[in-house]
Amino acid sequence: MRLIYRIAFRLALFLLPLMAAWAALFYFKTVDDVNDETDDALDLFTELVIERVLSGRELPPNDGTNIMYDIIPVGEQFVQDYPSIRYYYSEQYFPLIGYEPSRILTTVFMTDDGKYYLLKTYTPTIDKQELMHTTLVWIVMLYVLLLITVMIVTMLVFYRNIRPLYRLLGWLDRLKIGGGNPPLDNPTDITEFRKLNAAAEKALNRYQEAFEAQKEFIGNASHELQTPLAVIGNRVEWLIDNTELSQKQTEELLGIQRTLGSVVKLNRTLLMLTKIDNGQFPEKTRISIPKVVLESVEIFSEIYEDKGLDVDFRAPAVNLEVEMNESLASALVNNLLKNAFIYTPAQGRICVRIYERTLEISNTGRKPLDAEHIFERFYKSGGREGALGLGLAIVGAIQRYCGLEVRYAFGEGMHRFSVHWPKKVSEF
């Protein structure tokens, strides 16, 4: 989730209980104020009616235009049980407007002749349900309006102040380790961003230095190993060709020669794995996957012709082309195909299919491989003599470096490796 969306989400969560609390406070305060005003009016009107009853003067009009009243004779028992003054809500009938929610005041008083009366005064007041509904509607509208306003202001302020961070992120996205990188041009007067800029440049410089040192070390180590190995190999070959040796001595020298060949191959393979892991294949070009596959199939078919394999290669009508390092593309295809040709039993079958964005290689097999470990270094499944267990490790390293999807499955007596180039990462 992007930072601005997280901020917006948390602001919305913060505003929601705040607006709910404000709505409740507004509602109860409004009802309380209306009650106070209404009760004051009822008190004054009640005093007026009682005063006129006791003085024998004409009573106020009771025509339903504002405050209405009823005078009801009551007995002493009622006076003892009923509170002398009581406020409450109830619906009352008004001649001009019908039944309406009303605020009611009941008061018990006694006349000079000792008779008790219940004076009931009432007036129309606000409908609490309607007030609650109206308040809720307007609060929701206010919440939405306030939220939109806050979001717009927040985003404007956020993007204006966070611009140096996005410039830094853009610069980091364009970095190429081992390649020429432009200097960071990100002027800002914000202290935190200035520190972040300095830390990013410092980290890049350290990484570049470590990368160059490691690259130089790998190159030197490879050269220093290859040279003596080549010399030893040449001397062993000279001994075999130019000296009189017994059969046992010849067999020993041939064994040494095979071992040296394995060491040379191991050195080259480990060197390539290290280069892939260190991202030392930045060069990219437009690669035709069917063309690379066809060339490799022809080479391996000729090499393993004596096994009598049935090789079925079908390319799509639409060419699969990707932006990818040429060496990595060749290594990926060659290692998968070589694995298939080597481990397919004689008279077995190899199927190569290329779909829209997928390369699939299947070959005859006896039992499934360990899908969790086949792409690990030095994993060996068949125990073939001279196997290093690094072919599929190279495939796994290329998969991680290029962001590909490489899958393994086993079914119907066939091993199946598939390589998929997702569109978003097909430009490697």
UniProtKB/TrEMBL annotation:
Using the record's annotation, list all stretches that form the Histidine kinase domain.
220-425
EC number(s) stated in the UniProt entry for this protein: 2.7.13.3
Which keywords accompany this UniProt record? Kinase, Membrane, Phosphoprotein, Transferase, Transmembrane, Transmembrane helix
Membrane-crossing ranges are 7-28, 136-159
Name the SUPFAM superfamilies for this protein: ATPase domain of HSP90 chaperone/DNA topoisomerase II/histidine kinase, Homodimeric domain of signal transducing histidine kinase
Catalysed reactions, as listed in the record:
ATP + protein L-histidine = ADP + protein N-phospho-L-histidine
An example Gene Ontology molecular-function term: phosphorelay sensor kinase activity
Give the source's domain of life in one word.
Bacteria
- What name is this protein filed under? histidine kinase
Pfam families attached here?
HATPase_c, HisKA
The entry's cellular-component GO terms read: plasma membrane
The UniProt entry, under CDD domains, shows:
HATPase (cd00075), HisKA (cd00082)
